[in-house]
Design goal:
The protein is mainly beta. The chain has one domain (2-41): Rubrerythrin, domain 2 (Single Sheet). Helices cover 0% and strands 24% of the residues. It has no helices and three strands. It has strands spanning 2-6, 12-15, 31-33. A three-stranded antiparallel β-sheet has the order 2-1-3, with no helix packed on it. The chain is elongated, with a radius of gyration of 11 Å.
Length: 50
């Protein structure tokens, strides 16, 4: 399961794919995949740089 971050309000959720609308701000936003794919963020599971 991937971690997705709303490009507008910063809300983060875990799901297979991003939702149509953000559950937090209710807008149709761009969601960025902020899942960790490198060893330096394996502990948190999300990449804080995104």
């Amino acid at each position: 399961m991937s971690s997705w971050k709303c490009g507008k309000c910063g809300y983060v959720l875990k799901a297979e794919k991003p939702p149509e609308k953000c559950p937090s701000c209710g807008e149709k936003c761009e969601f960025l995949d902020n899942s960790c794919y490198t060893p330096d963020c394996q502990q948190e599971g999300t990449d804080k740089r995104v």
